[in-house]
Design goal:
It is built from 17 helices and 22 strands. It is of the alpha/beta class and about 625 residues long. It starts with a strand and ends in a 9-residue tail after the last strand.
Amino acid sequence: MADLTLGGRVDPTTHQRSQEATLLRAADLTTHGVIVGMTGSGKTGLGVVLIEECLAAGVPTLLIDPKGDLTNLCLTFPALAPSDFEPWVNEGDATAAGLAVPDFAAAQAATWREGLAGWGVDAERIGALRAGTEFTVYTPGSSAGVPLNIVGSLAAPRDVEDPEVVADEVDGYVSSLLGMLGVSADPLSSREHILLATIITTAWTAGRDLDLATLLAQVQQPPFRKLGVLDLDTFFPPSDRMAFALKLNGLLAAPSFASWMAGAPIDIDAMLRTPDGRPRCAIITTAHLDDVQRQSVTALVLAKLVTWMRRQSGTSDLRALLYMDEVAGYLPPTAMPPTKKPILLLLKQARAFGLGVVLSTQNPVDVDYKALSNAGTWLIGRLQTERDKARLVDGLTSAAGAVDVAAVGDTISGLAKREFLLKRAGKDVPEVMTTRWAMSYLRGPLTREQIGTLSTLGLATDPTAPPTPMPAPAPDVPAAPTAPAAPVAPVAAPESAPPVVPVSAPPSIPAPPVAGDDETPVMPAVAAGTLVAHLDPAAPWAGTVGAVPGGAHLRAAAVARVQLRYDDTKADLVHDEEYEAVLFPLPQLPDPSAFVAVDYDDRDLLAAPNGPVIY
């Protein structure tokens, strides 16, 4: 794989650039990297250059962009014409320079043309980057860019037989959802987290997808009786579960929440590669979100990335790059936000799968430097305070071992703008470099309106958009019931698959299932005096008799309880025994030998189904 040209060597005393280029082996990024520098140090520009080089080498990138700066990667103009720059220049900057917008755009174009020429970057190279890469700006919770379905998709992962994969993805989803709800998301102490995680895990390990409507219903009536060793109602009483369900429903019913279920589900494969194999630059910008929402989105994306990573084969080459533009707040020294666990896991395990992680920050004091010690490549720019420098040197010492602390500290103090101290993996002596000129126009964060115009101008793509006009809409897919319908005595027929809920369907008002020719939504009449009940999906023996948890198509079964007394006067013996059994399916002429012995209690049989069903 090609080397990455980050810039050129610099004499730290004279700050003069030499003719020696600063190259970084792409494979070195599998040992991860850290970029640190105060505001104005050129840290963002260095990150953009690093990403450009990876893309040019054919390495796809997934970018977490909490400030909006990385959207500038879409602004590459092979012709370097003033008209290309004009729509994107800041009017405030033009005013401050005393120039009209067209004149300021011409000045910016000239600056970029001269800057790139100084590094031997021509129009052909810029064009090759744009032609060889698809850039996409994802805006979760907003339609400005490409929306992401953050919480609406509960499809079971492909690797449900791997408990680690299931646990990581469940934890990411639940933490994200509860974060939006303002509920503590500690997986060990939060009742809400434990309940939701157990519901999802139970469905996924059985190979079943979920939807928000079913999840909400199962909060009220979970498909299990115990959590750990405690009875469910003791651990999380029904009244508390109802209060939690109402709070959750309030979030789901809010009009603003619809945007969180818009767009395609998070698919890391599709975000990293086009169908023809070209690399993609997936920019997930969260600048428009509040802190809680950023945490929720980032945690879920990282959980999906961990799941994707574990499906890959081992390699020593750089397969893909994760870049986080500001990691402070996501990897704090002591606190444990939902993003910290997946970041730590990636730093420790991603190398074996060829996934590089580069973390950038301007606040080294607010980052867990022990976690950063897993990084092999360090790029350190100007720092704001002596405290920042001391913390950085501590982290660098933990990562590299043999480091001349005094020399490194003096070098950092003398760095100029766009100069960085480069500490390579496996090398004791650091070097000073300056970054090359970025091919992307670094104009600062884009507004929502500007993000929306990227695709119309051909500067960004929407991978979810159809290549041709869509045909007439198909009939609506029938929705599942509000709750997993209790397999009854009518019992859910095993051959009847539960209907699918579109993610756009209102989660609190599901449509009834559609009845076939020999089915009816009204329960058939039974003989007078016959007791009728519906099987609770939480009954532990439901699968034993062939019931399908969550089924909406119900069939009749017979449930029997027989009490026998053995009374032998001569032997002075009186013994009572109780037998319970189920006959399913129920034929016209029952065969007693077909009964299946079960152990049920009265909670297993409900007076009515939970939601619309058909018989």
